[in-house]
Amino acid sequence: MKSRRIGILTSGGDCSGLNSAIRATYIRAKQLGYDLIGITRGLRGLAKDEPSYVALNDQLCGDSMLTSGGSILYSDTKFMASTVESGISVADARKALSNGYKKLGLDGLICVGGDGSVQLINELLNDNEDLRIVVIPKTIDNDVSGTDLAIGFQTSVEVVVSAVENIISTAKSHERAMVVEVMGRGAGHIAINAGLSSGADVILVPEFKYDIEKVKSKVMSCFNGEKNYCIIIVAESVEASGFKHKEEVIDGVVKYTHVVYGGIGQHLVNRIKETGIDSRCVTLGHIQRGGKTSVIDRTLGTMFGVEAVNLIDENNCGKLLCYVNNKICAIDIRDFVRNPTKTLTRDDVYVRIAKQMGVYIGET
Ligand code: F6P
């Protein structure tokens, strides 16, 4: 009898919890009688003339996978942009993906990816309705709409909070205003979650405009009482007058611009110093993408991994798995694509609580 085969790949920026999902997928697939292969280097690996993969086994998917950061399958970013840059059309790139699926003889594919990957999978399914694909949401940015949590977010918030605890001790000793720049692309979820749990005085997110004079007054007020230090958390994509984010232009058949964030924290330090208060910036960068996987991400990765295999086995594909109100559910990828990115809104409980805690979070 021909063996049944499922493939799994990790796509986009990595995070902690990917390996937990791979391990769970392996265990459930084996129970149901499937072979599980790990397609290496994400969509790029699938699109190759000879798709690259490893056969997953007990040794590769041992229990240490629950806690390890990164992806044992490697990951790729900007697959479509760089493919197009190399002169291949978008249609041909999609064809290469569906050919890869067929060459590997898959009965189903699990893509662990962010909002960009889901959009690409949607386009792929439009051309190839016979492909059986399920997406597991992952991203430290937590900006995948439809799900309360994506794999990797909680670990990232814990990394930030632990770093801010260290930063607070030096801020106190030197009576400084410390600006901590965090990741998140167009969403302020990392900033507001980490800011609330580390007692930040100012949290700036891309969703809300702010008044730099109000930031400066808030900083000064921290030095008027007994506190004598101040913590400002700023999300990497926050804008400022007199500051421009760097842009990387990929100049292929389709001109594609990618913003490379970094620098807003130092810009704020320069403005804060105008008050006469000493200030420093710490940019946390990619440490937010690593670290021992948090308990929540281990559980989430495990639940998503098992359910992804279940969906393929039930032939209930074309779905994005979501975690909503403490339950796992699956939404149609087409529904997701109507509104792919989840950002903070004025009605979010985090926003209200931050304000009621006296944190300056901009003009909401
Ligand atoms: O999307 C995840 C993320 O970590 C963002 O928060 C950040 O802007 C980006 O990826 C960094 O990407 P790269 O690894 O390409 O520098």
General description of the model:
The protein has 364 residues and is α/β, with parallel strands linked by helices. The chain folds into 2 domains: 4-151 and 293-324, Rossmann fold (3-Layer(aba) Sandwich); 154-290 and 345-356, 3-Layer(aba) Sandwich (Rossmann fold), CATH 3.40.50. Helix content is 38%, strand content 20%. It has helices at 18-31, 42-47, 79-85, 90-103, 115-127, 153-174, 189-198, 212-222, 264-273, 295-313, 333-337, 349-356, and strands at 4-10, 34-39, 53-55, 108-113, 133-137, 177-182, 202-204, 230-235, 246-251, 255-260, 279-283, 319-324, 327-332. Strands 3-2-1-4-5-12-13 form a 7-stranded mixed β-sheet, sandwiched between helices. Strands 7-8-6-11 form a 4-stranded parallel β-sheet, with helices on both faces. It has a two-stranded antiparallel sheet with strand order 9-10. β4, α5 and β5 form a beta-alpha-beta unit. α1 runs parallel beside α10 (295-313). The radius of gyration is 22 Å and the shape is elongated. The model has no long low-confidence stretch (mean pLDDT 95). Bound molecules: 6-O-phosphono-beta-D-fructofuranose. 6-O-phosphono-beta-D-fructofuranose is lined by residues 13, 77, 139-141, 183-185, 236, 261, 289.
